[in-house]
Amino acid sequence: MIYCVEDDISILELLTYTLNQTGYEVKGFNNASSFFSEVHNNKPKLVLLDLMLPDISGVDILKKLKDDVNTNNIPVIILTAKNSEYEKVKGLDLGADDYITKPFSMIELIARIKVVLRRYEKVKEIIKYKEIILDTKKHSVYINDNKVQLTLKEFEILKKLMQNIGIVLTRERLLEDIWGYEYYGETRTVDVHIRTLRAKLTPSFDYIETIRGVGYKLGE
Predict the structure, then answer these.
(1) Residues 101-139: pLDDT tens digits?
(2) Could you tell me which residues come within 8 angstroms of residue 50 by beta carbon, excluding any fewer than 6 positions away?
(3) Which residues are within 8 A (CB) of 62 and not within 5 positions of it... i.e. 6 or more apart?
(4) What values do phi and psi take at 29, rounded to 5?
(5) Cβ atoms within 10 Å of 139's Cβ, excluding its own
(6) pTM
């Protein structure tokens, strides 16, 4: 999922339509408050961020994203009419991954998005959480250098939790992301796999917290 933060509705609609047509899932926001309300529940793969917004500036949004341990690893591409070298350097210094000035071609934007996403996919081959190390490329998990044998679904659940530290993942979301729509409603499937996953993660089993009536999370 890509989040677009842009107060110009015509540009937001163009971005959303074009990226959807290219195969990306996109969600648009025309102010910071609605964006932050969503980003803490569902982390995007990438954020396209305008600098000039009605409530707070895009620079302030970028600062908040990069200062929060739950969102500082989300890649950000700045889209703005400000084309001074100072503004560009300032955005990059704050943690933006790329900077595109308006007007820009959609072909160029899509190419830049692909480059940034590829860069992050390579970095995220190894995911660490406390003493747990998960290798996405080799499909292996280690706790204190001891290999843990997990099934494919157990591995995917653990990976999803480790990619969303501190965020509650509902049973419905885990079902949809890992099993697909055909399992919709079978939330007990998630509970069973969480139970077997916890048993295999001993002595780190208690890191997976149950949020009663909602789902599961890894604590910060």
Answers:
(1) 888 888 999 999 988 888 877 656 788 898 999 988 788
(2) 5, 6, 7, 8, 11, 58, 78, 79, 80
(3) 49, 76, 78, 91, 94, 95, 96
(4) -140, 135
(5) 12
(6) 0.57
